[in-house]
Amino acid sequence: MKPIISFYTTRKTSPSLLKRFRRSLLSFVKKYKTTVKYALKPNRETAAFQQETIQNDTKSPSLKELGLDDFETHPNAAFPFRGGETEAIKRLEDYFFTSKKLGVYKKTRNGLIGTNFSSKFSPWLANGSLSARTIYWYVIQFEQEYFKNDSTYWLVFELIWRDYFKYISLKHKINIFLIGGILEKDYEWKKNLKVIEQWINGQTGEPFVDANMIELKKTGWMSNRGRQNVASYFAKTLNLDWRIGAAYFESQLIDYDVHSNYGNWMYVSGVGNDPRDRTFNVKRQAERYDSAGKFQRLWLQDTLF
Ligand SMILES: Cc1cc2nc3c(=O)[nH]c(=O)nc-3n(C[C@H](O)[C@H](O)[C@H](O)COP(=O)(O)OP(=O)(O)OC[C@H]3O[C@@H](n4cnc5c(N)ncnc54)[C@H](O)[C@@H]3O)c2cc1C
């Protein structure tokens, strides 16, 4: 809109200039009508259309070119994918239409190991390579082509949490960063550096917490189940200032998002949207979600021997 507004406000317009402007605007609209249509309702055809019509010769600089150290993806990484929209769409295609894992999402979403227990869309969503609307219209397309069940519903439901935390930030502004959170709770919090470092380094002595923290440190990723447990342990069991935990997540997570991170941290720490004052029993959580100890062994084996 900006150029059009400035055209009308900053120039002396003559009829012929207006005609030319109108002509160029119409040809622009005609040319990009399909793009606009697809932008409003993105789907699989959109992706194909974009790939066919939009020539993209952009080459991202390598980490080395940016003066940063290169890195190898950890062999156990739950997010071994690459960044960018093309990769995001590939993942969307694979998770929905090739493996059809979307159809069992509700059953698997509390998993801990591997690529397919959850969608893994969050890093692309966080940096804007993928939009929630694109995912939504792909879900609708999946439901029309295959089936609609509680899993297809649940993925959209989870995306609504993401939106919800954005509205929480809009409403409560800087309160999301204050110690009392949006509930303005007057709790006592500790700041014991040694205990904080043990948590960061996966050395708390609580294996389920430690395994998750080591995964985060080595890969920049942690499952939602893991995040809930380590955050609850930090804020509720160790009574440490929840904002320090949130800031550490901010520095590590490849899907860091200010609203989802601070919103969830407040929620788990009892200063946010959960009216219940709950503390996770991490031992029981480990028994329930990692009964054979596979996840804990995966990340703790180096430290066990
Ligand atoms: C303490 C804590 C901190 C968190 N920090 C972040 C963060 O910085 N960035 C981030 O994207 N998510 C954060 N989450 C939410 C959630 O853990 C991740 O979105 C999810 O694990 C990403 O994996 P996925 O894409 O496979 O999720 P899926 O289970 O496949 O869900 C699909 C999408 O729904 C959204 N979603 C799912 N759960 C949540 C949730 N609880 N809150 C908000 N959105 C959700 C995400 O956009 C996600 O990509 C945090 C959760 C906790 C408990």
TrEMBL record:
Cofactor: binding comment: Binds 1 5,10-methenyltetrahydrofolate (MTHF) per subunit.
Keywords tagged on the record: Chromophore, FAD, Flavoprotein
Name of this chain's protein: Cryptochrome DASH
Site (Electron transfer via tryptophanyl radical): W189, W242, W265
Positions bound to FAD: 105, 118-122, 158-165, 255-257
Stored InterPro entries: Cry_DASH, Crypto/Photolyase_FAD-like_sf, Cryptochr/Photolyase_FAD-bd, Cryptochrome/DNA_photolyase_1
UniProt function note: May have a photoreceptor function.
GO molecular function: deoxyribodipyrimidine photo-lyase activity; DNA binding; FAD binding
Species of origin: Lacinutrix neustonica
A Gene Ontology biological process term: photoreactive repair
Gene3D superfamilies on file: 1.25.40.80, DNA Cyclobutane Dipyrimidine Photolyase, subunit A, domain 3
PANTHER family membership: CRYPTOCHROME, CRYPTOCHROME DASH
NCBIfam families: crypto_DASH
Known cofactor(s): (6R)-5,10-methylene-5,6,7,8-tetrahydrofolate; FAD
UniProt domain Cryptochrome/DNA photolyase FAD-binding: residue ranges: 157-300
Entry similarity comment: Belongs to the DNA photolyase class-1 family.
